[in-house]
Amino acid sequence: xxxxxxxxxxxxxxxxxxxSLHLSDMDFDVKHVADGHKGIALLQNESFDLVILxxxxxxxxxxxxxxxxxxxNHYTPVLMLTSKSSEFDRVLGLxxxxxxxxxxxxxxxxxxxxxxxxxxxxxxxxxxxxASAEEKNSVAYGGLEVDTxxxxxxxxxxxxxxxxxxxxxLHHFIKRPGRVYSxxxxxxLVWGYGHEGYEHTVNSHINRLRAKIEQNPAKPEYIxxxxxxxxxxxxxxxxxx
Length: 241
Fold this sequence. Notes:
A hairpin with a 2-residue loop joins strand 6 and strand 7. It contains eight helices and twelve strands. The longest helix is centred in the middle third of the chain and has 21 residues, at 108-128. Helix 4 runs parallel beside helix 8 and helix 6 (164-175) packs across helix 7 (183-191). By secondary structure, it is an alpha/beta fold.
């Protein structure tokens, strides 16, 4: 089995060394850089299974690095390291696309638990696209076609690139057309534990998803807002798959 590669971008050398030692003992292939420019350079030349990213970095800060990671074609999980005083940046990081965060000071056991959870989540989802055995691999509504096995999404035959989170949101919707999901329910289903109080992160991802699949995001056809409740997939659309 190929060892999972983890990149730590953290300017606190002592903290990064402790993290690297524990993760290496768990048979992860770990690399560490201490500033944002070096982190970006590594990410441009190598692929990683996880990036552990400090918010406050010399050169390029963690938010900008996260933004650039999310602009890449392939999806890389991001675990952010934040301080207790950086509530705004923590929320912004989640909205940009960080998968989870840990606040400093933290225990190594907590970080390792979060890392294991991120890998479990990614592996479970990648096996079948979260589709149960009785579900069809490909489902189409109107001009939208979603293949839950290959994660391929097309609009009128045109391929649409979605991040893993965006795909999961869309997949939860198309599995239950007409079901209304609250923001808290979607947060729990897609992001899992540790994000209570960040329901507005769902709004940001819904907006980005709409921008990619809706002809007019201001007047969505697929993902509808149910005011005061949440969101649902339009069950009036004709299912073709």
